[in-house]
From TrEMBL:
Plays an important role in the de novo pathway of purine nucleotide biosynthesis. Catalyzes the first committed step in the biosynthesis of AMP from IMP. Its EC number is 6.3.4.4. It is found in: Cytoplasm. The gene is purA. GTP binds at residues 12-18, 40-42, 304, 330-332, 412-414. Pfam families: Adenylsucc_synt. Pathway: Purine metabolism; AMP biosynthesis via de novo pathway; AMP from IMP: step 1/2. This is Adenylosuccinate synthetase. InterPro entries: Adenylosuccin_syn_GTP-bd, Adenylosuccin_syn_Lys_AS, Adenylosuccinate_synth_dom1, Adenylosuccinate_synth_dom2, Adenylosuccinate_synth_dom3, Adenylosuccinate_synthetase, P-loop_NTPase. The keyword Transmembrane helix does not apply. GO terms for biological process: 'de novo' AMP biosynthetic process; IMP metabolic process. Keywords: Cytoplasm, GTP-binding, Ligase, Magnesium, Metal-binding, Nucleotide-binding, Purine biosynthesis. One of its GO terms (cellular component) is cytoplasm. Homodimer.
Length: 427
């Protein structure tokens, strides 16, 4: 009954899509447990490239049942266009199950996300503008509209009217925007209901029964550890729990059933949006990493901020999530460098920190303490076992493993399915 969590161990975009896809033929269910269409997960299969936002990556594996768990916020128009886009490429989403308890992103969530960011000015978070924060806000505020409400037009109408009664006041009186027409929203969402109905299910019940009968469930996170609402670089975070704890609350699978926690981690670091990033390289080197690694947002197209590997945040990910295995991605991007600095600790006002400082203020002032590792010149994209790697690449990986606190069980040397070195089995 293995239930395996796969999550991002940095600030997102670590290569979760590729890692999930790689395990596609060893699992029966792939469950997204939080986030929404702020995520952009890339999968490269042969000459085909897919960018998934709401659909679990398992949709690309014909024998996997993809599940959108209760912890996800769903923009139905985006989900349906994603389903249609895949259908046009011959990929069926017929097997998709959607939790009746997942929340819906409504037009007022998108409107409020955009306008509040504008009002924050310099203090803005740099959100994806997809309505994620306001949708989770209303969930916690107990004013959300859930997937199951699509099944009862009377309740749906009531919930939309109650929400818009308040939100229209905010939109018109605080932000000087136009009010949203409840009737039109109802009509639009009833249209989505027709198409989504066959997919709506009690997914927690289905998943627990599947585990009872020995099936393998993979829980696929969006975003990453440092974007977690509790454990991330608050307030520069997303509004959900991408950490392994969130995998349980976001799927209805209890912690006692988790058998493995796989942290996806890049051989360097990136971040999109605002917030602290101690190893950021705001210079030519950073630009080189961006260009060589293709570090441009899958969802918003924004440039990703780039920097060296940070072992302090890797250790932090191990601690918060109970990482059993790391999947180290994009090692190939570092080929050709003379030396590769790795951040092993921070210095704040002359004091050394081996762990993330307790306060936001100190983390903002953290200066990386670097240790230099010798690079390698060889192209490693053809490597298929650890022994195929040049000696310096092997030493780099071994050093990261030692500093991160959990074994590295797989290494990515290219975006394709086969461009992976498997050291230990992941399932
Ligand atoms: P996710 O959000 O964690 O799924 O990651 P993204 O898809 O946003 O970004 C990761 C990018 O790196 C994608 O373009 C992947 O195709 C690519 N990628 C994943 N693993 C590797 C790897 O090992 N090497 C290289 N060169 N690219 C990779
Ligand atoms: P994947 O799953 C990287 C960032 C945004 C912003 C912050 C809050 O592809 O790794 P939100 O719209 O969620 O309220 O924005 O979180 N962010 C991501 N950064 N990868 C992602 O997803 C992200 N999803 C959100 O850039 O800084
Ligand atoms: Mg991404």
């Amino acid at each position: 009954m293995p239930a395996v969590v796969l999550f991002g161990a940095q600030w997102g975009d670590e290569g979760k899509g590729k890692a999930t896809d790689l395990l596609g033929d060893q699992v029966d269910y792939v469950v997204r447990y939080q986030g929404g269409n702020n995520a952009g997960h890339t999968v490269v299969i042969g000459d085909q490239k897919y960018a998934l936002h709401l659909l679990p990556t398992g949709v690309l594996s014909p024998n996997v049942i993809p599940v959108i768990g209760n912890g996800v916020v769903i923009d139905p128009s985006v989900l349906l266009s994603e389903i249609d886009g895949l259908a046009a490429r011959g990929v069926s989403s017929e097997r998709l199950l959607i939790s009746a308890n997942a929340h819906l992103i409504m037009p007022h969530h998108r409107a409020i996300d955009k306008v509040t960011e504008r009002y924050l000015g310099k203090a803005k978070i740099g959100t994806t503008g997809r309505g994620i924060g306001p949708a989770y806000g209303d969930k916690i505020y107990r004013m959300g509209v859930r997937v199951q409400d699509l099944l009862d037009p009377g309740i749906l109408q009531q919930k939309i009217e109650v929400a818009l009664n308040e939100k229209n006041q905010i939109l018109t009186k605080i932000y000087n925007r136009r009010a949203i027409d409840a009737g039109k929203v109802l009509e639009e969402y009833l249209g989505y209901a027709e198409r989504l109905k066959p997919h709506i299910a009690d997914t927690s019940l289905i998943l627990n029964k599947a585990l009872d009968s020995g099936k393998v469930v993979l829980l696929e996170g969006g975003q990453g550890n440092l974007l977690d609402i509790d454990h991330g670089t608050y307030p520069f975070v997303t509004s959900s729990s991408p950490t392994s704890g969130g995998a349980c609350s976001g799927s209805g699978i209890p912690p006692t059933r988790l058998t493995r926690v796989i942290g996806i981690i890049k051989a360097y670091t990136t971040r999109v949006g605002a917030g602290p990033f101690p190893t950021e390289l705001d210079n030519e080197m950073g630009e080189w990493l961006r260009t060589t690694g293709g570090e441009y947002g899958v969802t918003t197209g924004r440039n990703r901020r780039c920097g060296w590997f940070d072992a302090v945040i890797a250790r932090y990910a191990t601690r918060i999530n109970g990482v059993t295995d790391f999947f180290l991605t994009k090692l190939d991007v570092l080929s050709g460098l003379e030396t590769i600095p790795v951040c092993v600790a921070y210095e704040v006002d002359g004091v050394r920190y081996d762990e993330i400082p307790m306060t936001q203020t100190d983390f903002h002032h953290a200066k990386p303490v670097y240790e230099d590792f010798p690079g390698w010149k060889e192209d490693i994209t053809g490597a298929r076992s650890f022994e195929d790697l040049p000696a310096n690449a092997q030493s780099y990986v071994k050093a990261l493993e030692k500093m991160s606190g959990a074994r590295i069980s797989a290494i990515g040397v290219g975006p394709g399915r086969t461009e992976t070195l498997q050291i230990n089995p992941l399932i």
